[in-house]
Amino acid sequence: TPKSIYIEALTVDCNALHLYSIPERLPLNTQVLLLQANNIEEVKDADNFPANLTGLDLSQNNLSSMININFTNSHQILSVYLEENKLIELTEACFSGLKKLQELYINHNLISTISSNAFVGVGNLLRLHLNSNRLQVVNSQWFEAMPRLEILMIGENPIIKIEDMNFKPLINLRSLVLAGINLTDIPDNAFTGLETLESISFYDNRFVNVPSVALQKVLNLKFLDLNKNPIKRIQRGDFSNMLHLKELGINNMPQLVSIDSLAFENLPDLRKIEVTNNPKLSYIHPNAFYRIPKLETLMLNSNSLSALYRNTIDALPNLKEISIHSNPIRCDCVNRWINMNKTNIRFMETDSLFCVDPPEFQGQHVRHIHFR
Q: With left for phi above 0 and alpha for psi between -120 and 50, is residue 223 left, alpha or beta?
């Protein structure tokens, strides 16, 4: 507001000073303490933290055990960074002194075991990064102590499988990242009850089919990332009846060859679809899209498409821009509509839109061809 006053938090920067312990006699008004890239192995003097400390960065140190980290009476701290340490286990109630904690970053450690009650006492936690550890299971009991959590990143762990109701206690979860876990499927009820969940990332897993049943039960899903999965076909109904979905990414799929009729159906709020960099994708059915009234952006570049049917575009009444460059376009009557100047759709990167066939048009710009 016009009457607001911006006051920068007082930060004490002790990064990369070869410290083996937390400095004593910190300024009493310190709010953020940076201790990144030191040699700290234990935190014993939490009682001596400045009373106004809200942010603590201990990333890239030598912390290996939560037993050696004392957060007792650290009630005022809101953010803790413990990335890139050597932690192997989260013991019972190991964060219980952080009553007001909102953000906890413990990614890129060696954590393979988490006590069922590890997060007791952090009921105000909003963001939790557990990604890039060595977890093999997800225990729903972990989450019972954090009902306010909104963002959970748990990707890049060797998790064997996701179970039904794994995330049920997270009634306020908005964003879930399950990237790089090598998942091959998701049980139908994995996300049941997550009524506030808006964003899911399955980037870089091993799905061969779209987990459509589980996804349709995420009633308020808005953003879906399925990039870099070995899905071979987008089949009829794979993306249907997701009433609030706004953006969808199915890029970088090395095995994807085709998109079937009615693969995308009844997606009334969808605004953007990205289907790019799929080296084997050579066919999109003319009726692949149905009842998608608000789609504005369709990204189809860098595939192996030789044609895009006019029917496909006509089914998208609100389409404003499309990218089909870097495809082996065949300049024949099927693609004639591109040059007919009867559309208000903007073609992106037209300088990269070339004919590959027939031979007499090879290498010429598609928009410059006089079709027969």
A: beta
What is the three-class DSSP state of 141? helix
Burial of 260 (0-12, 13-18, 19+ CB in 10 A): middle
- Name, in order, each residue with C-beta under 8 angstroms of 15's C-beta and a sequence gap of 6 or more: 34, 35, 36, 37, 38, 57
Question: Would you state the torsion angle of the CA atoms of residues 322, 325, 327, 328, taken in this order, to the nearest 10 degrees?
Answer: 120
pLDDT tens digits along 103-124: 999 999 999 999 999 999 999 9
Q: Residue 138 and residue 141: Cα distance in Å, rounded?
A: 9
What global pTM score does this model have? 0.92
pLDDT tens readout for residues 193-217: 899 999 999 999 999 999 999 999 9
Residue with tokens 């060797």: 158
The DSSP secondary structure of 144-194, one letter per residue, reads GG-TT--EEE--SS----PPTTTTTT-TT--EEE-TTS------TTTTTT-
Phi, psi of 248 (to 5 degrees): -135, 130
Structural tokens at position 262: 């009615």
Instruction: Determine how many CB atoms are found less than 10 A away from the CB of residue 276.
Output: 20
> For residues 80 and 132, what is the distance between their CA atoms, to the nearest angstrom?
17
Place of tokens 């009650």: 117
Nearest alpha carbon to residue 357 among 324, 312, 327? 327
